[in-house]
Amino acid sequence: MRSTHARFLLLAGAALATPALAGDAPPAHAGERLVQAEPPPFSEGIYPCSSCHKDLPPNAERRELAFHDEQQAIFSHDAQHRWCLDCHDLNNRDVLHLSSGAPVRFEESYLLCGQCHGDKLRDWRLGVHGKRVGRWDGEKTYFLCVNCHNPHAPRFKGVEEVVVAGKKTVAPTQTFLKPEPRPVRPEEQRR
Amino acid sequence: MTVPRLPVLDDGVGRRGQGPADEPAPERARDPGGRAPPRGQEGRRAFLQTAAAGAALAAFSGCGGLDEFFRRHFRELGPEELKAVLARIERRNQERFGRATTVRADGPRPGVEFGYGLDLSRCVGCRRCVYACARENNQSRRHPQIHWIQVLEMDKDHGVDLTHADLYYEADAVPRPGKFYFPVQCQQCRNPPCVKACPTRATWQEQDGIVVVDYDWCIGCRCCMSACPYGARHFNWAQPTLAPEELNPDQHYLGNRPRPKGVVEKCTFCIQRTRRGLYPACLEACPVGARKFGNLLDPESEIRKVMETKRVFVFKEDLATHPKFFYFYAT
Asked: According to the model, what pLDDT value does residue B53 have?
């Protein structure tokens, strides 16, 4: 726990100096190679955010937005206390920010998640929380928080396979999974 | 193929038949069902000879010849013999499925003991693992349907309790309220009761902890099934049904090679994958990341991290089977 915090402090310090963060990706041990899965795709035509926001005056007042219905409609991430600018950056729309104000790229959003969900971040870095595929003794692909949890409504429901940049990855769904068919009962088996 | 002349087992009937003609009474008494005695003693003897030779011929031609019939136990095979055995199975696959397959027999790696972790606080009971396993391991699809993984739905009110478990739950969406899900497969016990029960040593524990079955050695007595407290062993009551296009051609002798009728099979931690360093198929299929796998002897492995940081238990601990399949709660 302490080392995670220390690393965050270090990162925050480094981030102030350099806007491009060196990520706190899971550590690979001897003989292992970790590959990050593609993050799930943004909503159609929404990124880069600055393409619209460069013409809009920054407004830090908490309010109901006239746009972004897709996110507002499902928002349930401590909605009572949080709103857009707790994670999105007011001045640079194309990045997120930590509570310290340090910018975080969208690809490294797990740093942001880990501010509150430190126990999950710790487990995820060890490979205990979340999914990895590939080789138990070598190269493996790990998925990001946002591959399974929609950041605007993070309670896990299900995932679906998607293709991003020609690579297979997963994206969260807002519907629960339907189970595969039940096994055949013994009396239904033809003998 | 040449079949050498085999000694015909003499049941004593024929020799008695050489005696005086007034002795047929005791023989008639031995004849089951009171059927009429055969045409003559010589006729009976000739019949027995032909039947024995015929049966031997059928047995040899059916399972690949004398080499196979008089083969040594898998663990005693030399490299050349093993190569011949694997080639024979590939040939048999070709005949049965009309497809080329690769059958390997990768051995255990030194310094590796496999362990499996399953996070009960994550599993949603979607059964993706069940079908991924069946596809990977060439299980019989229907009649008989064989699943190496059985997902039990249990009540949160009762906890892990087999008297409140439902294998056949149906739902539009999982997890259902008030329920949790408990997948059961071979627990790869350190102290496996199935191995002790096998009369032919057709099943044994490998160095890396995987309990395997030699389908060519199994006589189908099912003693191991009654010995297993987890219901993890399954019997091919009929010729397995598997369409050639669904066959996984990447096979291991002790794992997913197609089984004949009348043998027992079980989860092998995907021996054909894990011995080559890959994760098991059920782990890769799990959409929630509830399944963890790795080397118990490597302190940095995911499974060791699970065991060191989570609340872990084994199923039916009181039976002292010492499973290497660990259930845990991450939250």
From this structure: 57
Number of domains observed in the structure of chain A? 1
Task: Supply the range of the domain harboring residue A33.
Answer: 2-53+69-177
Taking the C-alpha atoms of residue B22 and residue B25, their distance in angstroms, rounded to an integer, is 8
Residue A189 is assigned to a structural domain of this protein: no
DSSP state of B288: T
Chain A residue closest in CA terms to B169: A182
A67 pLDDT band, cuts 50/70/90, is confident
Kindly state whether B310 is in contact with chain A, defined as any CB-CB distance less than 8 angstroms.
Answer: yes
| Residue A191 sits at the chain B interface (C-beta within 8 Å) | yes
**Residue A190 domain-assigned (yes or no):** no
Nearest CB partner across the interface for A179, out of B171, B294, B300: B171
For tokens 């595969």, the residue is A180
ipTM for the predicted complex comes to 0.83
Chain A residue whose CA is closest to B145 = A184
Interface check B170 vs A, CB under 8 A: yes
- Residue A31 in any domain: the answer is yes
- Asked if A156 has any chain B CB less than 8 Å from its own CB, the reply is yes
Q: Which chain B residues in 139-168 lie under 8 Å from chain A, judged by CB atoms?
A: 142-145, 147, 150, 167-168
pLDDT of residue B11: 39
Give the pLDDT band of residue A64 (cuts 50, 70, 90): confident
The CA distance from B35 to A49, in Å, is 93
Q: Where are the domains of chain B?
A: 42-70, 71-104, 114-329
How many Cβ atoms from other residues are within 10 Å of residue A104's Cβ? 22
Closest by CA position to B208, among listed B109, B89, B288? B109
Task: Measure in Å the smallest separation between the Cα of A9 and chain B Cα atoms.
Answer: 24
The whole-angstrom separation of Cα B126 and Cα B141 is 19
Partners of B249 in the β-ladder: none
Q: What is the pLDDT of residues B182-233, one digit of tens each?
A: 999 999 999 999 999 999 999 999 999 999 999 999 999 999 999 999 999 9
Domain B114-329 has CATH 3.60.110.10: no
Query: Pick from B61, B43, B42, B41: which is nearest to B53 by CA?
Result: B61
- Contact list in B for residue A182 (CB cut-off 8 A) is 127, 167-170
- Chain B residues near residue A129 by CB distance under 8 angstroms: 289, 330
B123 touches chain A (CB under 8 A): no
Please tell me if residue A151 touches chain B, with a CB cutoff of 8 Å: no
Q: Do A178 and B173 touch (CB under 8 A)?
A: yes
Q: Could you tell me if residue A182 is inside a domain?
A: no
Angle at A42 between CA A22 and CA A166, to 5 degrees: 80
Overall average pLDDT of the A130-139 stretch: 94
